[in-house]
Write a structure and sequence with these properties.
Elements (H helix, E strand, L loop, with lengths): L15 H15 L12 H10 L5 H14 L3 H5 L3 H8 L6 H16 L8 H5 L6 H10 L10 H12 L10 H10 L4 H17 L18 H4 L19 H14 L4 E2 H5 L5 H14 L3 E4 L2 E3 L3
Antiparallel strand pairs: 1-3, 2-3
Helix pairs in contact: 1-11, 2-3, 2-8, 5-6, 9-11, 13-15
This protein binds a DNA duplex (11 and 11 nucleotides) through helix 2, helix 3, helix 6, helix 8 and helix 9.
Amino acid sequence: MTAITATEAPSLPLPLPLLHSTVIDWYEASKRDLPWRTPDATPWAVMVSEFMLQQTPVKRVLPVWRAWLTRWPTPADLAAEAPGEAVRMWGRLGYPRRALRLHAAAVAITEEHGGGVPDDHATLLSLPGVGEYTAAAVASFAFRQRHVVLDTNVRRVFARAVTGVEYPAIATTAAERRTATALLPDDAATAATWAVGVMELGALVCTARGPECGDCPLFTACAWQRAGRPPYEGPARRGQTYEGTDRQVRGKLLAVLREAHGTVPQARLDAVWPDAVQRARALDGLVADGLVEPVEQGVYRLPQ
DNA sequence: CAGGCGTGGAA
DNA sequence: TTTCCAAGCCT
């Protein structure tokens, strides 16, 4: 029989409690001072940050997050508004369907959960726009519960430090989840700090490009470092073109609707893209997604 | 489950 | 300039 299977992950040459304290101590000394991490940040404030941070960098999220929480300090405040107001407030964060889903989540919280952000993972997962990651993040960061929080940062840290490869697979694997589960501290409060600490390590030090290994608290333990930092060997990562896609057209159309207050005539939309077929397809898509509402023939607006 | 879904900044 | 990436979700 073979001695070692290919899927068996090497483990860190570090006792678990020492691994935990190493990352947590580094986090306490090096963490960014982000407003959704302050003690007075409400679960709603945490949840809003998680929606906005899905695929959008912290720097761009900060001003929108502040404006959002000022205008809508509770889920009920947002739920009382038209979804189009959420889309407008979302501004240029990208993926505006997130704004619609956040609004829908606020409605569900208000109407079905007594107005408070749910504190259990399963209920969070049932909300629009909340997937496995966001449910775990809100439960962990806002309610200090013990959950595997597996985002792109954490996956990269574990890929390097534990498995010894430069990048994780494109899709999350069962093996990754087992690794993350095995490393999770038993105590809930410690697990919550560990989760945010590993994420922060991935965001600040163990970055996708140009990791600052000299500053890494796991430098001597890291499997990738010990293996001589072998380059990534997996399949090419999906490089998406953007110029000329429907996504770009949708973005241009929605920008017109966002910046206009009230209705917009067809001609204003026609001006943003020369190809009438693609333009119509993009507009149809926006309407189908609920991001745009037809008012009458040739007149559109954000959803009321 | 692979692909669609925005936007802007850094390498 | 081009490419890659940034706390994913949904179908």
